[in-house]
User: Fold this.
Amino acid sequence: MSQAETEFAAPAGQGSGLAALLRKPWLFWATLFLSTALISHYAFDLYKALDARWIIRFPSAWQPDFEGRISAFMTWLLEDARILGLQFREITRGLAAMIEAPYDLVLDLFVRGLVFGQGQQAVQILPPLSWVAVVYAVVALGHYTKSWALAALMGGCFGYLAVFGQWESAMVTLSSVLIAVPLAAGGGLLLGILAYRLRWVDLMLRPVLDLMQTVPVFAYLVPILFMFGFGPVSALVATIIYATPPMIRVTIVALRGVPEELAELGRMVGCTPRQQMWKVMVPSAKPTIMVGVNQVIMLTLNMVIIASMIGAGGLGYDVLTALRRLDIGGGIEAGIAIVVLAIALDRLSQEYATRTVEQTARQAQGGWLRRHRWALSAAAVALATFLAGMVLPWIQNYPAAAEISTGAFWTRAMEYINVTYFDTLDAIKTVILQWFMLPVRAFFTGIPWVWGLFAATLIGLRAGGWRLAALVFCLVGLIVLAGLWTPAMMTVYLCGVSVVIASVIGIPLGIWAAGSAGSNRVIGAFVDTLQTLPSFVYLIPVVMLFRVGDFSAMIAIVAYALAPAVRYAAHGIRSIDPQVIEAGIVSGCTPAQLMRRIKLPMIVPELLLGLNQTIMLALSMLVITALVGTRDLGQDVYIALTKADTGQGIVVGLAVAFIAITADRILAASARQMRRKLGIEQ
Amino acid sequence: MTHSSILLECIDLWKIYGHAPEDFLKAHGGAPTTADFQAQHMVGAVRNANVRIARGEIFVIMGLSGSGKSTLVRCLSRLIQPTGGQLIFDGEEILGKSDRQLIEIRRKRMGMVFQHFALLPHLTVLQNAAFPLEVQGVDRQTRERRALEVIELVGLKGRENRYPGQLSGGQQQRVGIARSLAVEPDLWFLDEPFSALDPLIRREMQDEFMRLQAMLKKTIVFITHDFDEAIRLADRIAVMHDGEIVQIATPEELVQNPANDYVAEFTRYVPRAKVLTLGSVMRPGAAESGVVGELPANARIETVADQIERSDGVFNLRDADGATVGHIGRREVIDVLVGRRGGA
Assistant:
């Protein structure tokens, strides 16, 4: 039975007209859409006719000065606040020093070498690890973790970085990752354990984690920049804050997933609470926790690249400068290096997470020398190349003469594409802009705030009842109060357009992937790769082909946000009870009927969850596309970042988060509603 | 049974789930009825359980899923806190004990075997078996020596360095048994230890269990949903239904005098020769003529059926003191074997 039929079969006509309207979906959505379109279209004329400017613009006299107050608070915090007698500034400095010390050490090891003295008088006492040693070490790690194939992949990736002249930047980026990952993973693990053990920590952390997931990354770059100043420390702090919440979540889920019997075993043999946690719970949860570590590594890499805006350096900085100079070749070169590094780190950490007990067992055999042969040989190679490097410099540093620069090639290739296919590309861009994006933009930006607030609340009411309606009213109301209605609607428009296109591409791909093992392998690998790449990378080809503007932003967002649409659709199809499909086949459904009458209606809740994820990713990418010249909230955050305006950064960042939370709650409530109706409540 | 022969005793034990269970129990004078539970949407997982477990006996708690047997055993081991009642272990009330005291009791005096083995996946067989000792802080050499002993005891010698994932289900449960024995517990809990195994392996493990118990003579609380397993292993059986203990009796008493229809339903298809002793079907007094031999009155019919059936005469039966208490012939045995005399 289709969705509509169940809906209409429900008893109607009781209660007021509004309640009846809320119950019939098509009537509800059609009425809402038509009235919104009408109001949106005539809002401007209405304002002219009535000379009531408040209709389209929320009067600034009614706006409380959120931004000024937050900025003032931050200034006070930094200059006057004392915590336990310590000046706040001293605390941030202490933190910075604690992070900077190990970072410097790692940077010395990989990039700078041990340097004595400052500036001009600096003398390098010891060189950094030679490229040969690093490549050998990652190959050894690959073999130790899984197989020669992984070793070859690792060698290939790092070899690429050396040969194609990206070594130094890549090592700077890698150093940041190496510092941020243990801190984020370790901190996340400890907080997750605390939340698992203490209910009040869990209750306190939960809303923070929810918010952190939705606040765009640029937004917390601003206060961090304000507190720690421009430089690698700020970047590391931002990275750690960004990568920790998922680790906390995974840890809580992993610990809760430990079979009850194992917990009982720990108590039966008389474990103290500490032994229970570290000898029973954490080791049993380790496979899941390792998945979290993999996530932390990938998020760290993503953020380290973005944080080049506040001084992280490395590959991200290369991309950023290339983008700013429109240096096509340089941008693509650095972008590919990021991709290569991302793939290497992802494969390695993923294989490590899925290591079997047998592997561990095999490696745990033999004497000390045999068990540590890889670590020992890596140390030996490092020492040997250090000594040999004094005589043969090419062993220490990859010779510049043998570097292959692909920059010029890429520049020419792009030029060729742009010259040859200009008409085609431009036509695609114009058609989509003219016939799809611009009308949608006019629709959303025309909605007066009063009606927008009302409509959003109404949708909340329909999807989840009074409580959700109240929440939506508050969140949207705050956006209005902050005077951010118009840029917020720009955000909704760009995000909405991208999500629609991502769904139109992604859902059929997902359904196709679920159809056969072969297509699943290809599409799965494609989607996995898309998800591995740091968001920054998506900007490069887009800007090269379409220049700056909404269209470029849209393409980048679609590429970044495609993965969940594909994944959830595939998962939805796969998780349909095979008996239901068999029943359809036995009843004589054609494949088309099978899809339309059985499969599609059954995966709607799953699709809604996928849509939810797509929206979240789209919003997070949206902010980054501010770099290619959008005019929404993302741009406002970016401007706040460049001006180091904490108040604006936080307020606008929260506005994006509120949009995300509103969308999330409404979609989650709708999915729940539909699940219940289909009788597949989980 | 004298007091000192009792190792574990629970008196009026309740475990109630729902809103404010203690208040609920108090409000109904410590004995809420089924109607009370329904009226207030409470669940009585264990209701008014009274159990006395003697040293060295195999006490089986039998019930179908949802009968409360798992909850009861978790109350007895204090893995969960009962809502009300008393729990006396070796003469001491342990419901009021602090966590620290409980840890001490569990470390030294209790062992438990779990339905799904509960082996730590990251530890080898040896390390798993040594785990309870490791937790106590026993040094590596001592604990591994002891672990090797128990591994040998359960017949897994030579596999100490395997990981649980590399073992079959039966072997994994042997590790679970070895681990629970490593601390030489006084009280041994087995929570459906063989339910997750294939029928053939289950049988083999039951034999193995009986062999171990013949050597170790532990006090055992054994949980099962399998009535055949219960009568095979038990000295006494407690049958549970809807959170209540319906009957506590020896397998023979259960078969002969089921307390109600629910218990009778279980006993109906039990092969009687396996449960009944000669004493329960004998004719009283010594036989006057045709006596061809003597048999112990407490022998199970199954074990001597062939011998009696093959002979034309009757056998006099001796009790444990050697006194003749009755006699039995081919006729009585055949009656039992073909089920002619029902439960009597």
Observations:
- Residues 1-15 of chain A have pLDDT under 50 and may be disordered.
